[in-house]
Design a protein that fits this description.
By secondary structure, this protein is an all-beta fold. Helix content is about 0%, strand content about 50%. Strands 14, 15, 19, 20, 21, 22, 23, 24 and 25 form a nine-stranded antiparallel β-sheet that branches.
Length: about 575
């Protein structure tokens, strides 16, 4: 009698209660064999999916459009996205766009202005007001300013001498038809670090901190050279590094570049500034790593930022730029192309490495995927819900397979052959995006719903859902999956006995809902021919005794399949042992 079922195991020899193949089953009702709950179709018609995330509501990219809460927000490039949520902002890479979910504002992390008119650079106060100074030594009047060989000096009656002004500021403006333009300073803010290039004064080409932004000028701190006018093109730019992977940690964005072998951190609380090195706690940060190979992912975990390569991880220690230390740990890292497999479930980090699926608790990663046997997978994406880790991968035959791992029981279930591109979580609910739709995996989520729309109410066979869950235009009839096809195939029965044997009777203890059906088949000696031995329709909870035609064999397999909802509590097999012949 088998009355405890331990899920999927693709190895040559498996235990009683394990299956070599499964479809659309679940461990929700362990220890029984059960069909997983139906999922809810949030949105159909997601052509060219490029990514999804959640920050109070669902956000995703299809084609060249970014959507939030079911509404199109802006256009983006037609490629896969990396999202990082920081407070009310959703940061989208590689587009380097910030969307504020509270205000609806869109900001661009980078900003570039090419001065096509006349560039005017001149000394000013820290607030941007113009200074009145003399190029030659003026009369000795208290407060008089003199630009002495590029050094701004002020006359002091108290000391009876010229004293250097401790901090000197320049303001930059663009003049067109004799007037300063207001559009020049748009998109720049106090605290930005900007890069000047194309300036005839070579000393002014470089990075500078913005101290103020007036109606027409940008104020920076630099050596004063008097008023400087340039008629040729000059560029003012706030830039963000090109990064392969990005995550949020400690109110900063962190990223990495495989091309430059560098790790970056933005300024504290400011995702737009990555070059601010003023010696403050809030500064940005950058470091070069010496390990070979490309970065394969990054994530915030256990109070650290982890940057992965395929054969190692880099862990960032410290709580401020002056204290940051990058350590190298040789281990099974994230497989290239599997960065979306990284998920944290109940304090454990899971991800797909080159050899296996790993669990990492802060010490060393350990394999949890022995059940996969010798099969190898790639291009993994994953999500978590309840106590489960759900992962979609491609095998060496270019076939997509989705698995679910029950963390509590250590059991794998092979769900189906769907290709899932992206997962995201929001307040306990797991969503995933395929090539054609967005689905809700877990239905217990926040009460006020996620989407504008209507209250579904009650309908036959449909229990009430949270109001406002669907997108406008959806109806209760098209949100649920159809009745699920399910399947479970045992390993070889009879391998424990050397002689020939035969299965004389099978007894099932099961429950099948009305409108559902179940079929049981048997295959002898791996001949590839499945013989039907039972068909049964929904009859509630009962025991079924199945007589089997006597056929001597070395080993046999059973396969249970059907459509709809069912539970199997136990399978009892009567096996008669024969001789060696």
């Amino acid at each position: 009698m088998t009355n405890t079922f331990y899920g999927y195991n693709a190895n040559s020899v498996i235990g009683d209660g394990e299956f070599t193949d499964t479809e659309n089953l679940t461990t929700d009702f362990f220890p029984t064999i059960s069909v997983r709950p139906k999922r809810i179709r949030i949105k159909a018609g997601t052509d060219a999916p490029h990514g999804m995330c959640a920050n109070e509501s669902l956000a995703y990219v299809c084609g060249t459009s970014f959507y939030y809460d079911g509404e199109k927000i802006c256009d983006v490039t037609d490629d896969d996205k990396t999202f990082a949520c920081m407070g009310a902002y959703i940061c989208i890479f590689p587009d380097k766009i910030m969307y504020n979910v509270k205000s609806g504002d869109i900001k661009y992390m980078e900003n570039k202005r090419e001065i096509s008119g006349t560039a005017v650079i001149e000394p000013c106060t820290i607030s941007g007001a113009a200074l009145e100074y003399s190029d030659t030594e003026p009369e000795h009047v208290d407060g008089a300013l003199w630009l002495d060989n590029g050094v701004l000096k002020e006359w002091s009656d108290t000391y009876g001498m010229w004293t250097s002004v401790p901090t000197s500021y320049l303001r930059i403006g663009e003049r067109v038809a004799g007037e300063f333009t207001e559009s020049f300073k748009e998109g720049f803010f106090e605290g930005d670090v900007i890069t000047l290039s194309g300036c005839d004064k070579k000393e002014l080409n470089g990075d500078f901190l913005v101290y103020a932004v007036t109606d027409t000028h940008i104020v920076i701190s630099a050596t004063v050279y008097g008023r400087f006018i340039q008629y040729t093109h000059m560029t003012v730019e706030r830039s963000v590094p090109d990064m392969d992977f990005v995550c949020e940690h400690g109110n900063r964005l962190w990223g990495c570049s495989s091309e430059k072998h560098e790790i970056y951190s933005s300024k504290l609380g400011n995702p737009s500034n990555w070059k601010n090195y003023s010696g403050l706690v809030s500064d940005a940060y950058a470091a070069t790593v010496g390990t070979p190979g490309d970065f394969t992912g990054c994530i915030s975990y256990g109070g650290y930022v982890l940057f992965f390569k395929e054969n190692c991880m880099h862990r960032i220690y410290g709580d401020r730029p002056s204290d940051y230390v990058v350590s190298d740990i040789s281990c099974r890292g994230v497989m290239k192309g599997c960065e979306r497999s990284m998920c944290i479930l109940n304090g454990i980090l899971y991800y797909k490495s080159r050899q296996c699926v790993c669990a990492y608790d802060g010490s060393m990663p350990e394999s949890i995927s022995d059940a996969f046997g010798r099969e190898r997978y790639s291009e993994a994406a994953a999500g978590v819900y309840a106590d489960k880790y759900m992962i979609s991968m491609k095998n060496v035959k270019e076939e997509w397979v989705t698995f679910s791992y029950d963390q509590k029981r250590g059991i794998w279930i092979k769900e189906n052959n769907f290709k899932i591109n992206f997962f995201t979580n929001d307040e306990g609910a797991l969503y995933y995006m395929t090539d054609s739709e967005i689905m809700l995996v877990q239905q217990d989520y926040k009460i006020d719903g996620l989407y504008p729309g209507m209250d579904i109410g009650f309908a036959d066979g449909i229990y009430p859902l949270c109001p406002g869950m669907m997108y406008p235009g959806q109806t209760p009839e098209n949100i649920y999956e159809n009745d699920l096809m399910y399947m479970a195939e045992t390993g070889d029965i009879g391998m424990d006995y050397p002689d020939y044997k035969y299965v004389s009777k099978i007894i099932l203890r099961l429950q099948i809902e009305r409108g559902s059906y179940l079929r049981m088949e048997i295959m002898y000696d791996s001949d590839g021919i499945w013989e039907r031995i039972l068909d049964i329709n929904g009859t509630g909870k009962r025991s079924v005794s199945i007589p089997v035609n006597v056929r001597r064999c070395d080993h046999a397999r059973l396969r249970i399949s059907g459509r709809g909802n069912m539970q199997i509590y136990s399978i009892t097999k009567n096996i008669e042992q024969g001789s060696e012949i």
